[in-house]
Amino acid sequence: MSEADFIKAIKANHPDLVVSAEVLRSKRVSAVVKREGFIEVAKTLRDDLGFKFPVSGGAIDFPKEEKMQMMYYLMNPESKFMLIYKVDLPRDDLKLPSLTQVWEAMSFHEREAHEMFGIEFEGHDNMIPLLLSPDWRGGHPLRKDFKGEGSEE
Amino acid sequence: MTEPVIEPDIMRMSWGPQHPMSGQTRILLDIDGEKVHRIIADLGFTHRGIEKILENRTFLQGIIPMERMVMADTPNIGLGYVMATEEAMGIEVPERANWIRSMICEMARINSHLYAFGLQAESTGYFPAVFLWTTVDRTIILRLFEELTGARWSLNFFMPGGVHKDLPKGFEDKVIEGVEYLRRRFEQYWVAMVENATFELRCDHVGVLKPEDAIRLGATGPVLRGSGIPIDVRKDEPYAAYGDLDFEVITESACDSMARTKVRYREIGQSLDIMEQVANEVPSGPIRTNVPLFARAKAAEVLSRVETARGEMGVHLFTDGGMNPYRVKIHSPTLRNMYVFERLAELDEILVADIPVLINSIDPWYLDSDR
């Protein structure tokens, strides 16, 4: 499957749920989906489009646009191209169903996004800090408005 | 971290955080006698916030904190960031620079794999001398690094547009000399260690990771190839000069700790071949295109991928037209493999005595998983 075929396939499968899908360059595609159809599209990706291989996950903060974006990186082990699977979250409502029900290996990455950005993952069974210390009270370090006050209570 | 409830008859053992094998981390083992029921990796003891630091550095300055991720393998890590920067700025790299980059990366891979191999021998409890042998052999590589870059560990040799310096006069001959010496040692290690009955007893059938589990759990690098899946960024998406170089992707089908050790070991042989090819055939020409010291990148989103010694590392770089990156997301290979390590207790029967062998077969570098 080529990159263009993939874009066609994902748009044909879920015309209402996929906001946009584009080819970044060869072997890189990115797709933005709506939050409500986020798990449904992920299951199609895994079962029908061959993205069986979870790579990583992370978020990015856009304070000017009042949103954050959660990104999951997935790979198709046959065609060897990488998909950046994105979902937009309004900054005042950072809730997302956990993708561990589709790819359980996203567990560590969601724990990291939770502590670094404050995104709530509903249905994640072990939401404890991954990298930060348990007594950290300094906020979410990778947000753009983080000032670096440290961990004093 | 909040401690989950421990079942009766199960004891929780804390392994670490004071340098349990390589680096600082804590591993919690729920054990019933000798049998390990559950493994919990408690990471983060060496978290330095590299992703945040990079947001406050120019693209050139960022290479220095970036390379602190894996000290045994700095060129491969640095190259991931440099390649992302080049793609965002639209910089072309001269051919000679690409060949030199490939050679340095393979030298670092040998350095890192020899370190892992020595630790694996030591972790079995029988071969304390082998770690010293590999340490001595690593100095061959480190001396070459020192002559080329002035540093033995953190090279900071790659920069957007190419490499810092050209190869010194007669450097190619020294590389060939080093390759010949390491090849002889390579054969000796195979006979003394890899085919050693005691080593086999300790490593065979320990922590079996089936191919479908390796894919499902997102394993990478030698852990993935030790389960027989030929995924290697150098072949799938050739960067630097790997498209022109002749090498194969090493896989092993046994899926156990021994297979992962063998993959790493046989990769040293491939890396030696690459070093020799570059030393013999490196094209002449310029070594870098000039990039302004405080260059700006147009607003862009790029994702570069490199194959480090521990597996695939990705750098997802967002730029907004300023002199610093807007956001850098690093895909850490050790973080992915640590998740696999956590789940291995469910996939295979593991004894407490197997834990050192098992964790070294993953070849973790906690500075890498913690960033």
Q: Could you name the key traits of this structure?
A:
heterodimer; A: 153 residues; alpha/beta; 5-stranded mixed beta sheet; two-stranded parallel sheet; 3 helices; B: Cytochrome-c3 Hydrogenase, chain B; 4-stranded antiparallel beta sheet; globular
- Gyration radius of chain A (Cα, Å) is 16 Å
**Which regions of chain A have little confidence, pLDDT < 50, spanning 5+ residues?**
none
Largest sheet of chain A: 5 strands, mixed
CATH architecture of chain B: Orthogonal Bundle
Low-confidence parts of chain B lasting 5 or more residues at pLDDT below 50? none
Instruction: List SSEs of chain A in N-to-C order.
Output: HEEHEEEEHE
Q: How many H/I helices of chain A? A: 3
Strand line-up of the largest beta sheet of chain A: 1-2-5-4-3
Described by the principal axes of the CA atoms, the overall outline of chain A is globular
State the end-to-end CA separation of chain B.
19 Å
Topology of chain B as a string of helices (H) and strands (E): EEEHHHHHEEHHHHHHEEEHEHH
Q: Specify the helix fraction band of chain B.
A: 40-55%
CATH class (first level) name of the domain at 3-93 in chain A: Alpha Beta
Estimate the global geometry of chain B from the Cα principal axes. globular
What is the distance, rounded to the nearest whole angstrom, between the alpha carbons of the first and last residues of chain A?
A: 53 Å
What portion of residues of chain B belong to β-strands?
5-15%
* Fourth-level CATH superfamily of chain B: Cytochrome-c3 Hydrogenase, chain B
How many β-strand runs of chain B? 9
Overall average residue pLDDT of chain B: 87
